Hints:
Radius of gyration: 22 Å
Oligomer: single chain
Strand order of the largest sheet: 3-2-1-4-5
Distance between the termini: 54 Å
Order of helices and strands: EEEHEHEHHHHHHHHHH
Largest sheet: 5 strands, mixed
Shape: globular
Structural class: alpha/beta
Helix content: 55-70%
Number of helices: 12
Mean pLDDT: 87
Number of domains: 3
Strand content: 5-15%
Amino acid sequence: MDPKSFVGIDVAKDTLDVHVLPTHNQSQYTTHPEDVETLLARLAELHPTLIALEATGGYGTTLAAQLQDAGLTVAVVNPRQVRDFARATGQLAKTDRIDAEILARFAVAIKPPPRPVGTDSERSIKALSARRRQLVKMQTAERNRLYRAHDDQIASSIQDILDVIARQLEDIDRQLGNAIRSSDAWLEKAALIQSTPGMGRTSTLKLVATLPELGQLNRRQISSLVGLAPMNQDSGRRKGYRSIRGGRREVRAALYMPTLAAIRHNPDIRQFYLRLTENGKKPKVAITACMRKMLITLNAIVRDSQTWTPQNA
Length: 313
């Protein structure tokens, strides 16, 4: 058994394609519980350095949890990054077996950091959070269609869908609130976040619901995930304007009003904002920078399980 073996698993509804490097051993299992147990036993004997699988929803999350419970090191990776890696290495064809090999090669080359999948309660909250993001995306799309609709019947149909989505969001928010209140770990996380000046109860619950990764990533990773990491636009002698892009818009929305409140009532954020504006930064740019500082502060607070204290105290 190679102590430096890497495994890629392509997860489908009915099958699990497995590729092991450096042996290039390939195998396929069904998602039937007995077959999954056989796979877990085989991987436990191999004890690979890292197992990579894509974040493909319920099937992938369930398998990742089972692998984690078996004491194996697992990285759930972004499918877009894996596809970009495949194209960069000249692999354009796509089948389940090829995808499993690409995942194993991705694990060898990139070595993505393994992150805990979490307890059943944590996975439930993450699943509800993911569903909320889907509903918000659908809501935005329907609102855009309603804005462009010039036919009353079409507009009425779109409004009916928007009403259903609004009710679904209310239900999801209620379930999230109940799930957070029933979990000591999530209640502790909410209490830590709310100890920061500017973070109220409602904004705290929204942040916990939309960013369950808070406290699990480093400052650069959490900023990139939310879309608050400034991206350079430089080429040759040209120095472009740094701007944010991508990430989770709903998290930025949840942080916006608390940041405005923090600029008034949080001494660290206020001092940071004043320094930026005094140095010529536009207010909008300064607010965005304060949102990033607020996010990094909250991430550190949750990571270290310590309530907020002024930096200059």
